[in-house]
Design a protein that fits this description.
Largest sheet: none
Structural class: mainly alpha
CATH topology: Growth Hormone, Chain: A
Distance between the termini: 39 Å
CATH class: Mainly Alpha
Number of domains: 1
Oligomer: single chain
CATH architecture: Up-down Bundle
Strand content: under 5%
Radius of gyration: 21 Å
Number of strands: 0
C-alpha cells in the first residue's frame, strides 16, 4: 500500500507562532523606543519613567501562572486569541495616557493580557512538533519576538517624527486585534482536528496523551509536583537573570544611546534595532544548535546546557567593553554581540519547559516566565536609579554579573527529570 506523503501544516503553525511573537514584541518594545519622547512630553525623570513602565512587568509576572494554567486547561487556540485581542486593545490605550499614573494603568492592563502569550505559545507547539525539534521550534518562535523588537525602534522613530508617539500605539494595537482573529481561525489545539493535516503528518507528530473521550486540552495540572521541581527553580532563577538583562536592552537601550552616546533620535532608532536583529538569528541558532548537540551527543542534558552556559558567558563578557569602549560604534558592536550571546539561551530555556513539563508545559513555562519578568520589573526601576545616581556604566556592569550568575545556575539543571511525573 502506497504511503501518503506528510502534509506541512505543522510548519505553518510554527510560522504563526513566529508572527504572534513578532506582533507581541512590536507592542512591547514600542514603549522603550518612544520613551525619550514620552519623558519629554510628560516631563518625567528616568526614575519616574521606570516606575510607570514597570507596571507592565509586574502585571505580566503576576498573571503568568493563571495564563499558563488557562492555556493548559482551555487550549492555546482560545486563550492566545483572547490574550492577543486584550493586550492589543491596551496597546492602543497607551496612546491615550496623559500623565505618569494613566500611563502606568494602561501598561498594567497591557501586561495582564500579554501574560498568557508565551506560556500559551509554548503550549501551542507541544503537539505540533516532534520532541527532537522542540528547541528549534522555540528558537524560531522567539526569533519572531526579536525581529519584531528589531524593526520597532526605527519604525517608532519614524512615526514619532511624522505623526506622534501616540499614533505609534494606535497603529500597533489595531494590527494585533486583526491578527487575533487570524490565529483563532487557523490554529487547532489538536492536529487531528485540523482539516489540512494528513495521516502521514500525524505519524511524525507526538502521540495524543489523553485517552479516548477525554479532552486533549484539559489535563489536570499537577501544581504540587511542579512547584517541588528543583530543576524548574534553577531554571526560573536563571531566567530571572535573563529577564533583568533583556529588559535593560528593550526599555533602556534607546535612552542610553541618546543620553550617553549622544545619538539623534532617528539614528537611535536604527542603532537600538541592531542588537535585536542579531538576537533574531541567535534565537534560531541556539535552538538548532541545542537540538543538534543533544542528538549528536545522545545526551539531552549536555545538548541543552552547553548552549546556555556558552551564551550567558558571551553576554557577560561582551557587556563590559560594550559600555566602557570610548568609541560609540565599537561599544554598540560589543553590546550587539552580548545580546546575541544572551539570546542563544532563550530557545533552550523554553525547550526545557517542554522537556520537563509535557502537557503541563504552559504552567511550567509560566513559573519560569514569572521569575523572568520579576527580573524585568526590577530592572526597569533599578536601572533608572543606577543611571541617575551613579551613571550609565553601572547598569551594564550589573547586567554582566547577572549573566555570569545565570551561567552558573544553568549547570544545575537536568532537563531529563520530569517536573510533572
Amino acid at each position: 500500500m502506497r504511503r501518503m506523503p506528510a502534509s506541512r501544516v505543522r510548519h505553518r503553525v510554527v510560522l504563526l507562532t513566529f508572527l504572534t511573537s513578532f506582533i507581541m514584541y512590536m507592542d512591547r518594545v514600542a514603549m522603550g523606543s518612544a520613551a525619550p519622547a514620552i519623558m519629554a512630553d510628560f516631563h518625567l525623570s528616568k526614575i519616574a519613567m521606570g516606575w510607570s513602565t514597570s507596571a507592565f512587568n509586574w502585571a505580566y509576572a503576576l498573571f503568568q501562572a493563571p495564563g499558563g494554567w488557562m492555556a493548559d486547561r482551555y487550549g492555546p487556540r482560545l486563550v492566545l486569541a483572547g490574550a492577543m485581542a486584550w493586550w492589543s486593545a491596551f496597546t492602543a490605550a497607551t496612546g491615550l495616557a496623559s500623565n505618569a499614573v494613566t500611563l502606568a494603568v494602561a501598561r498594567f492592563l497591557f501586561g495582564m493580557g500579554e501574560a498568557a502569550a508565551f506560556p500559551a505559545s509554548a503550549r501551542a507547539l507541544v503537539r505540533w512538533l516532534p520532541a527532537r525539534r522542540r528547541a528549534f521550534g522555540q528558537g524560531f518562535q522567539h526569533a519572531g519576538s526579536r525581529f519584531g523588537a528589531a524593526v520597532t525602534p526605527p519604525l517608532v522613530a519614524f512615526l514619532v517624527a511624522a505623526l506622534s508617539w501616540r499614533w505609534a500605539f494606535y497603529i500597533f494595537g489595531a494590527g494585533g486585534i486583526f491578527w487575533a482573529v487570524g490565529w483563532y481561525l487557523y490554529y487547532r489545539d489538536d492536529p487531528r482536528d485540523h482539516r489540512g493535516v494528513s495521516p502521514g503528518e500525524l505519524e511524525v507528530l507526538p502521540a495524543r496523551h489523553s485517552p479516548p473521550g477525554v479532552p486533549a486540552n484539559a489535563p489536570a495540572v499537577p501544581w504540587g509536583r511542579i512547584l517541588r521541581s528543583r530543576d524548574l527553580w534553577f531554571l526560573s532563577a536563571m531566567y530571572f537573570c535573563y529577564g533583568w538583562v533583556l529588559w535593560m536592552y528593550l526599555f533602556w537601550l534607546p535612552t542610553y544611546l541618546v543620553e550617553a552616546r549622544h545619538f539623534t533620535r532617528l539614528r537611535m532608532g536604527f542603532a537600538a534595532g541592531a542588537p535585536l536583529l542579531a538576537a533574531t538569528f541567535a534565537n534560531m541558532a541556539g535552538g538548532w544548535l541545542s537540538d543538534r548537540l543533544a542528538h549528536g551527543l545522545n545526551d539531552l542534558r549536555r545538548g541543552r546546557l552547553i548552549v546556555s552556559v556558552l551564551g550567558f558567558a558571551v553576554a557577560g563578557i561582551g557587556l563590559v567593553p560594550g559600555v566602557l569602549a570610548e568609541d560609540a560604534v565599537t561599544g554598540l558592536l560589543c553590546l550587539t554581540l552580548a545580546l546575541a550571546g544572551l539570546e542563544l539561551t532563550v530557545a533552550v530555556s523554553w525547550a526545557i519547559c517542554l522537556d520537563i513539563g509535557g502537557d503541563s508545559s504552559g504552567s511550567v513555562s509560566a513559573v519560569m516566565n514569572t521569575l523572568g519578568n520579576i527580573g524585568g520589573a526590577l530592572s526597569a526601576v533599578v536601572i533608572g536609579y543606577l543611571a541617575t545616581r551613579l551613571g550609565w556604566n553601572w547598569p551594564f556592569l550589573v547586567a554582566s554579573a547577572m549573566c555570569l550568575i545565570a551561567a552558573a545556575l544553568a549547570t544545575r539543571i537536568d532537563p531529563t527529570r520530569s517536573a510533572v511525573v
